[in-house]
Inverse folding.
């Protein structure tokens, strides 16, 4: 696999997760995209490939989410071309076994409110067109004071905070699917 600029662009979809405990292979996403869409061939193994990002990354999930929604990366020819659509819900899944701590060398710039504002702006000021699943260190009831992702999730009408427990992932995705169905029933495209 010959890496491209998109492989090192924050916010671009990952197609070749590399490093310790990563899939370390090219994930077969239909259409040469950097994201999966409805009708993805072999959805379960493809998602598994993409989701095994490994343990060698930074904890910049808030910042990466914001970067993934910027117009430049989503325009025709951008790394995520066609990813954001006005006529579709946006499903966001965040996974980390540690906090995205403000001021930490590996933490995100910004705040939960700023990240939420970026999502709102990307979705035409309609947070009800977004479903957010955060699988993280949510062992503290509510949100730990340092868990900025958990705090952000509470700002969304269709969202779940769940504990980082591998054997429960399918349960979490089933819950998220139910939220998608609820959001879809209410969604009116612009």
């Amino acid at each position: 696999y010959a890496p491209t600029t998109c492989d090192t662009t924050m916010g671009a979809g990952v197609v070749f997760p590399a490093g310790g405990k990563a899939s370390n292979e090219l994930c077969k996403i239909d259409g040469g995209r950097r994201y999966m869409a409805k009708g993805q061939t072999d959805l379960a193994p493809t998602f598994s490939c993409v989701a095994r990002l490994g343990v060698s990354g930074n904890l910049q999930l808030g910042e990466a989410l914001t970067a993934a929604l910027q117009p430049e990366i989503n325009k025709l020819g951008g790394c995520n071309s066609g990813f954001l659509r006005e006529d579709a819900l946006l499903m966001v899944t965040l996974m980390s076994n540690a906090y995205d701590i403000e001021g930490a060398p590996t933490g995100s710039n910004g705040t939960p409110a700023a990240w939420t504002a970026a999502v709102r702006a990307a979705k035409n000021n309609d947070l009800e067109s977004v479903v957010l699943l955060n699988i993280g260190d949510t062992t503290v009831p509510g949100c730990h004071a340092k868990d900025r992702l958990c705090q952000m999730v509470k700002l969304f009408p269709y969202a779940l905070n769940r504990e980082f427990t591998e054997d429960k992932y399918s349960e979490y995705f089933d819950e998220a699917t139910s939220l998608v169905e609820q959001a879809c029933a209410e969604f009116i495209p612009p």
The chain is about 30% helix and 10% strand.
